[in-house]
Amino acid sequence: AQSVAQPEDQVNVAEGNPLTVKCTYSVSGNPYLFWYVQYPNRGLQFLLKYITGDNLVKGSYGFEAEFNKSQTSFHLKKPSALVSDSALYFCAVRDGRTGGYNKLIFGAGTRLAVHP
Amino acid sequence: GAVVSQHPSRVICKSGTSVKIECRSLDFQATTMFWYRQFPKQSLMLMATSNEGSKATYEQGVEKDKFLINHASLTLSTLTVTSAHPEDSSFYICSATNLAGGSSGANVLTFGAGSRLTVL
After folding, report:
1. Higher model confidence: residue A62 or residue A41?
2. Which of A41, A103, B6, B88 is the most exposed place for a label (fewest CB within 10 A)?
């Protein structure tokens, strides 16, 4: 069965400092991994995805994530945090086995708070 | 880019009434739409998957007679909460994608802005 773990409920970081939001996953086949961001009372916005290829994926708003197969992780990172990055971040995984469309499983979410 | 419009964004209704939420893909054909429910400070819970022209597939524990889903066209899916009760109060989010051409597990889902339902 697929699962996603985001071990931190909240991450606090000072503006200008680097940030990391952690995500680990479990799937039977090759993982398709996604990061989404949610602002208050809004739907989810796509940030980036890993399907295949380079382990370091660059996405929107200066975010990037590194796929680590041995550690089954897909941590979200940004070199310099902005106050406007404060939001709820979701990691999601889909089993990449062929033969049909598998549903996307979301982690519990991590609230990022960037302080001035 | 792909845009999904969800309406209404907020709705307040009395207990026992029914509420309809619309999800529209504005600039692409959505072969598949997903309906999620999100409780405060919690993740998204997939309620059902709807494919255009066929019956929705509900997740375990979701009452199909309570949450009616219709996906009559490639750009519109509706969720009707029937005989709503206060415990149905929640944030409902739809998402859409186009799976034409076979398995597209790499597809990015496009989400609507969500609908906050409050049942008094």
Report:
1. A62
2. A41
